[in-house]
Amino acid sequence: MNAAIKNEKLSNWIKEVADMCQPDNIYVCNGTKEEYNFMMAKLIASGSAIPLEKRPNSYLFRSDPSDVARVEDRTFISTSSKDEAGPTNNWIDPSELKEKMKRLYRGCMKGRTMYVIPFSMGPIGSPISKIGVEISDSPYVVCNMHIMTRVSSKVLDLLDAGRDFIPCLHSIGAPLKKGQEDVQWPCAPIESKYISHFPEENLIWSFGSGYGGNALLGKKCLALRIASAMAKREGWLAEHMLILRLTNPEGKQYHIAAAFPSACGKTNLAMMQPAVKGWKCECIGDDIAWMKIGANGRLYAINPESGFFGVAPGTSYDTNPMAMDTLKENVIFTNCALTDEGDVWWEGINDAVPSHLIDWKGRDWTPESKNDAAHPNARFTAPASQCPVICKDWENPEGVPIDIFIFGGRRGSVVPLVYEAFSWEHGVFLGATAASETTSANIGAVGNLRRDPFAMKPFCGYNMGDYFHHWLNMGEKLGSKAPRIFYVNWFRKSQEGKFLWPGFSDNSRVLKWMCDRVDGEVSAQKSPIGLLPLEGDIDLTGLNISAENMEELMSVDPAEWRAEIPDIEAHFAMFGKRLPEKLKHQLKDLITRL
Ligand code: SAT
Ligand code: MN
Question: What residues of the chain score a pLDDT lower than 50?
Answer without folding.
Answer: none
